[in-house]
Amino acid sequence: MFRDIKKEIQSLNSRFESFREEFMDEQIRLKEENKELKTKLERLEVKFDRYEAQSRRNNIIIHGLEGVAGESWDDTEKLARDFMNDGSSLKPVGTTRRVPHPGRNAGTYRAAQGVHELHEVLENQPMSHKVGHSGGSHFEKGLQNVPTCLPRNTTTLLLSHNKLKLPNQAFVNVSFLKVLDLSFNDLKYLNANSFYELSELESLNLESNYLNYDNDTLPPTLFNPLSSLLKLSINNNSKGSPYPDATTLKPMPFLYYLDLSNNKLQRLSTDTTNELDKFPNVTVSLRGNPIQCSCRALDFLRWMNANQNKFSGLSEMACEYDNGSSISMTKLHQIVEELTSECSRANAALGIVTASSCVCIVLIICIALGYRHRWSIRYMYYIGRRRFWRQHPVEEVLQYQYDVFVSYAESDRHIVIQEMIPELETKAGLRMCIHHRDFLPGEAIASNIVNAIDKSRKTLIVLSPAFLKSDWCVFEYHIALQSRVNRRQDNLLILMYQHVPVKDMPREMAVLLSNNSYLEYNTDVYGRDAFWQNLVESVKTAQPLE
Asked: The CATH number of 392-540 is which of 3.30.565.10, 3.40.50.10490, 2.40.30.20, 3.40.50.10140?
C-alpha cells in the first residue's frame, strides 16, 4: 500500500515539473511579445505625431463677432510663421486688419498653403474699424460669406461667431473638410445643397443658431452628402426645434452622436425613432428640452424607456405634464406605466364618446330620412301588412274593387252624399269607396285608408280649407301620392271644391296643381252637366305617369 502511494507521489512530482517548465516557457514568450508590441506602439506614436502635425497645418479658424484683443503683431507673425513652417512672413495690412493671437477667438486664420493666402482672404472680407485693446483688433460684424480662396485640402474649418449666410454649394472648394463649426452664426435657414460635396465631413456643429422650419423638420436632402458624418450638433436653437427626421438621418449611416439639447423639442416622431433604432451605437442628447408627459408623447416615452442607453444625461432631463408640473427622467419607467394606465382609460372614454357620437349621427340621419319619406314608409307598411297578414294574393289588387276612393273633410260630407253618390254611382254606375260607409269596422283607420286607396283605380281629393286642416285628410293625400308613384299611373284627381290659396297648400300639392289639370266645382246651371261628365270620364280614364 505504501509503495503505491510513493509511486503516485513521484508521478505527481514529475507532472508538476513538466507544468512548471511549460509555464516558464510561456512567460518568456509573453515577455518577448510584449516587447515587440511596445516597439510597434512607439512607431505608431511617431506616425501619429507626424499625421497630427500635418493635420494641424490644414486647420483654418475664423472667429468673428465675439473676438477679443490679441497679442502684439510681432508675436502673431512669429507664431504664424512657425506654424506654417514655409518661411513666409506675414505682412501687416493696416491697423484695422491686424490678426490677433490664434486661439483668442478674434479672427485667426491657419492655412496649409502659406500665410500669404491670409492676406488675400482678409482683403476680401468686410471688417470694422480698429478697436484698441493691447494693440489688437477684432471683427464687430464678422464674416458674412464663406471665403472662396481657402486651401482645398483644408480639413478643419471653424467659422463660429460670424454672420454667415450659406448659399447652395457653399463649401464646394473645400471638399476635404472633416470638421466644420458653424455655431453662433444666427443662421435661420439652410439650403438643401449647403453641404454639397462634403462626403468626408465627420463633425458638423450648428449650435446656437436660429434655425426655424415649418413643422420643425430640416430639409430632407440637407445631409445627403454627409455619408461619413459621425457627430451632429443642432443644439441651443432658440427660435425653433429643428431635428433630423427619418429621411434626413438615412444618409448618415455612421452617426454615433446627435446633440439636440436645449431646443424646444417635446418629442420625436415615430419615424425618427424607428430610424434611430438602425444606429446601434448612437448617443442622443435631449437635455434642456420640454419633453411632454402626455398621451401624445407616450410612444416616444416608451421608446426612450426601452433605449435608455442611447441617451446622454438622462438623469438631468425632466418630463413636463400639461398642468405645468414636471418629473425627473430617472423615473421614466414609472412615468410610462402611469401614462399607459391613464391613456388607456382616456382612450376607452374617447372610444365610448366616439361610438356614441356615431350612433347619434346615424340615428339623426335615420330620423331625418324617415321623416322625409314618412309617407312612403307608412304606405309600404300598411301594404305589406294587408298582403302578408291577411294573405290576399297580389292579383286581387290589380282588379280594383272600387273605381274611385273619395277623400273629403267631414264638413264637406254633404257634396259626397247629396251629389256625388247620385251622379257617379246611380247615373254613371261607378263603384265609390266612402270612408263612413265602406271602411271595415274594427280595423285601424290608417290601415283602412291604405286598403281603400290600394283597392281603388283612382283617388278623388275634395280640396277645401277644411280638408287641409284635417290630419286624416292630409294623410290620405300623401298615401295617394305614394300610390301614384308606386303604380306609375296618374291615379290622383283633385276637385277644387272651395278655393285654397297656394301659400296654404303643401309644397307637393302646389307643384302638382301647377303641372297638372284639376277640376273646379261648378254650381252653374249650364256648366253643371259638363262638370259631372268630365269627372266621370276622369275616373274611368287610366293614364301612365309621365
From this structure: 3.40.50.10140
